[in-house]
Amino acid sequence: MSNPKMNYFAAQDILHLVITDEEEVESLEISPNITAELNANGELIGVEIMKASLFLRDFILESTQAKLMQLKQASYA
Length: 77
Known about the structure:
Helices cover about 30% and strands about 35% of the residues. The protein is of the alpha+beta class. The chain has one domain. Strands 1-2-5-4-3 form a five-stranded antiparallel β-sheet, covered by helices on one side. The longest helix is centred in the last third of the chain and has 25 residues, at about 50-75. The protein is elongated, with a radius of gyration of 17 Å. The model has no long low-confidence stretch (mean pLDDT about 90).
């Protein structure tokens, strides 16, 4: 597969990003509710985010607030 795909499973609130169609051999929890899927060579082939709606909400809020603070600081300079 050349183009990554994203699937959202609403009933479980899981976002799954598939980078390649390779077989998953191993997975590692890289932070709470985020799992990296690896192939036989240890290369990243996918990412699974549980409680995706909360993760995305928090990520967007934090990113937006940080950007707003930068813009405010720049306008006072």
